[in-house]
Amino acid sequence: MAGGGFVNPAGNKAYPGELTLYVTITCIVAAMGGLIFGYDIGISGGVTSMDSFLKKFFPTVFRKKNDDTSTNQYCKFDSETLTMFTSSLYLAALCSSLVASTVTRVFGRKLSMLFGGLLFLIGALLNGFAQAVWMLIVGRIFLGFGIGFANQSVPLYLSEMAPYKYRGALNIGFQLSITIGILVANVLNYFFAKIHGGWGWRLSLGGAMVPALIIAVGSLLLPETPNSMIERGKQAEAKEKLVQIRGVANVDEEFNDLVAASEASRQVEHPWRNILQRKYRPQLTMAIAIPFFQQFTGINVIMFYAPVLFQTIGFGSDASLMSAVITGVVNVVATVVSIYGVDKWGRRKLFLEGGTQMLLCQVYKCDQNCCYIVTM
């Protein structure tokens, strides 16, 4: 099982079909679902570094940040309410992803993406028009629900729509949208923070409505995947759609494999219990360990709190926001390189290169921190 769908038993079998304009446009629109996650990652850290936002909702943090010279820079943002504002999104995303899996499998990928867009839209409206902290937190919860649905359904949709030769590149389009969302959010924060009157944070938070509308409207226009149609017993429609998206008439081999995979998945009893069997433990371990340790490096924390972190090491308000923009640009460029190389060089080489690069940077950072502590 994969995100509520089924895995093709033939793997990367060379089915006939090319990357048609129809599939390209479809995947680009679907990949826009990554914008909602990326925008939120980039926008929140910038907003929490704006004095006008802190003064209205977190006055204690505002006073410590601007008036208290005795408190360590890192401790000035120590607030349980501020932590609840930032972290409530991720808790909500975790909970909604469990429900999203069932919705995606039973009702299709399109409906799951639609739910993600609409829930994110509600959260953006609540945050943009917030008058009290509770509105911010409730809005963040809705944002989290939206991200849970979108992050669960969009990568699966892209994998099922893409021809096997371009599956890696098109799937990374989701990650590219995330990085673009982060970059756009950082740029907007930089300019909105300069608005006189101290209401620029409303534009930053409310701007999340744009990516929400893109994925919500896009989900209404996108076709359903053949895999999803087969899962729900619409085999004739699924074959017609497969012919359309592959651009060739001879899709019998791929279609038969999809039907066989669907039937095999229905016959599996107790899938969650089966995956814990000894023979599946290596795959299960790696499927959990890779994303866990990728997140454990702290990269999402850096991207999320970039402006705040740059401020705590002495950067000014404008400089911290601009540094976050530069970080976002590097992120986008690296993702573009991955899109170019993933199907050409393979997933394993990119994985090894990325892991080695992160290891060297972590060692260097640790060495610099140790030198700083020794010289204090």
Please tell me about this protein's structure.
- With 376 residues, this protein is mostly helical.
- The protein has one domain (21-345): MFS general substrate transporter like domains (Growth Hormone, Chain: A, Up-down Bundle).
- The protein has helices spanning 21-31, 34-47, 51-57, 59-66, 80-107, 109-128, 133-161, 167-192, 200-206, 209-221, 226-231, 235-246, 252-267, 271-274, 281-296, 299-312, 317-345, 347-375.
- The longest helix has 29 residues, at 133-161.
- It is globular, with a radius of gyration of 22 Å.
- The termini are far apart.
Descriptive keywords:
376 residues; mainly alpha; Growth Hormone, Chain: A; 77% helix; globular; disordered C terminus; Sugar_transporter_CS
Main sheet overview? none
Task: Kindly report the name of the CATH homologous superfamily.
Answer: MFS general substrate transporter like domains
Number of helices: 18
| N-to-C CA distance | 53 Å
Structural class: mainly alpha
What's the rounded overall pLDDT mean? 82
Number of strands: 0
Helicity range of the residues? over 70%
Under CATH at level 1, the class stands as Mainly Alpha
Gyration radius (Cα, Å) is 22 Å
Low-confidence stretches: 1-10, 372-376
SSE string: HHHHHHHHHHHHHHHHHH
CATH topology: Growth Hormone, Chain: A
Write the layout of secondary structure elements.
Blueprint lengths: L20 H11 L2 H14 L3 H7 L1 H8 L13 H28 L1 H20 L4 H29 L5 H26 L7 H7 L2 H13 L4 H6 L3 H12 L5 H16 L3 H4 L6 H16 L2 H14 L4 H29 L1 H29 L1
Helix pairs in contact: 1-7, 1-8, 2-7, 2-8, 2-16, 3-4, 5-6, 5-7, 6-7, 6-9, 6-10, 7-8, 8-9, 8-17, 16-17, 17-18
GO molecular function: monosaccharide transmembrane transporter activity; symporter activity
Membrane topology: Multi-pass membrane protein
Pfam family, one: Sugar_tr
